[in-house]
UniProtKB/TrEMBL annotation:
Gene Ontology cellular component terms for the protein in this record: cytosol
Domain Enoyl reductase (ER): 11-322
SMART domains attached to this UniProt entry: PKS_ER
Superkingdom of source: Bacteria
GO MF term list: mRNA 3'-UTR AU-rich region binding; NADPH binding; quinone reductase (NADPH) activity; zinc ion binding
Keyword set, alphabetical order: NADP, Oxidoreductase
Coiled coil: none
Keyword Mitochondrion: no
Phylogenetic lineage: Bacteria, Pseudomonadati, Pseudomonadota, Alphaproteobacteria, Rhodospirillales
Organism of provenance: Thalassobaculum fulvum
This protein's name: Quinone oxidoreductase
């Protein structure tokens, strides 16, 4: 038996329960991971609330790190005792241990500790595809990242700055502005006080941007389009304030032949080769010191309700780790 968070109906944080479950031996192609640290991500709240429906009852959590406890038939790339990490479906990382397809897991290099690995996989790999693949940030670019003091935001700020970009970021408070600035955000904008469109154009002297990265959704749409230059790219990768309402596609023509994309991490990590390449790029950025993973909060697995309340209440910054 292992302890795991399960939920039997969609709803608020209170629907999550800590339960004892039977864990079978890993099937062919799977490995069994004994978790040492677990990542908390906003997508977990979408699964819990039913926005992204799951067959119930179900576990939660898309990200974790730990040690390989057993390997199934046909697994050649991993052995018992290997340190590993992942950010992949199906949800189930909120647990002491779990089985998962070996093709979704990567080895953790010696220079990265387990908490960092658990905190960096989903958010760090998201940052990787955003600034290294969806729109390749170049030296001299000026970019806008919403929720700059969040887990993905802090990584994007640091990494884009290391690539030679100027980073503008929106945040919810002066404290978050200080945190973002300390992590590579050149121009934090407190959106509750300043209009981010006016402030962005003031910062750039009226010059519009090649890209906006947005995980907020409804509250930042469609004003984000007003800071994009002709043929600029709007990258929507989350919806913490709610989904973007139906859109008249003509708006992209009217505002300058804009591009819009709604990428997901799982599309970019669908192949083992793609996963390994992205992870290597991320681990190199962290190991070099160019990117620091800011673990600002930790919670016990038994306190997962409080962790979700704080996350949805915008009381968290950076990355959060759950300890089993």
């Amino acid at each position: 038996m292992v302890k795991a968070i399960r939920f039997h109906k969609p709803g608020g944080p209170e629907v999550m329960q800590l339960e004892d479950i039977e864990l079978a031996a890993p099937a062919a192609g799977q490995i069994q991971i004994r978790h040492t640290a677990i990542g908390l991500n906003y997508i977990d709240t979408y699964h819990r609330s039913g926005l992204y429906p799951l067959a119930l009852p179900h576990g939660l959590g898309m990200e974790g790190a730990g040690t390989v406890a057993a390997v199934g038939d046909g697994v050649r790339d991993f052995a018992v005792g290997d340190r590993v990490a992942y950010a992949a479906p199906p949800p189930g990382s909120y647990s002491e241990a779990r089985n998962i397809e070996a093709s979704k897991v990567v080895k953790v290099p010696a220079g990265v500790d387990d908490k960092t690995a658990a905190a960096m996989m989903l958010k760090g790999m998201t940052a990787q595809y955003l600034i290294r693949q969806v729109y390749k940030v170049q030296a001299g670019d000026t970019i806008l990242i919403h929720a700059a003091a969040g887990g993905v935001g802090l990584i994007v700020c640091q990494w884009a700055k290391a690539l030679g970009a100027t980073v503008i970021g929106t945040v919810g408070s002066d404290a978050k502005a200080e945190l973002a600035k300390a992590n590579g955000c050149d121009h934090p904008i407190v959106y509750s006080r300043d209009d981010f469109v006016e402030k962005t154009l003031e910062i750039t002297g009226g010059k519009k941007l090649p890209v906006v990265y947005d995980s907020i959704g409804k509250d930042t749409w469609p004003k984000s389009l007003d800071v994009l230059r002709p043929r600029g790219m709007m990258v929507s990768f989350g919806q913490s304030s709610g989904p973007i309402p139906p859109v008249d596609l003509g708006i992209f023509a009217a505002k300058g032949s804009l591009q819009f994309t709604r990428p997901t991490l799982m599309t970019f990590t669908a192949t083992k080769a793609g996963l390994d390449e992205m992870a290597a790029d991320l681990f190199a950025a962290v190991s070099s010191g160019k990117v620091k993973i800011n673990i600002e909060q930790t919670y016990a697995l038994a306190d997962i309700v409080k962790a979700h309340q704080d996350l949805e209440g915008r009381k968290t910054t950076g990355s959060t780790v759950i300890l089993p």
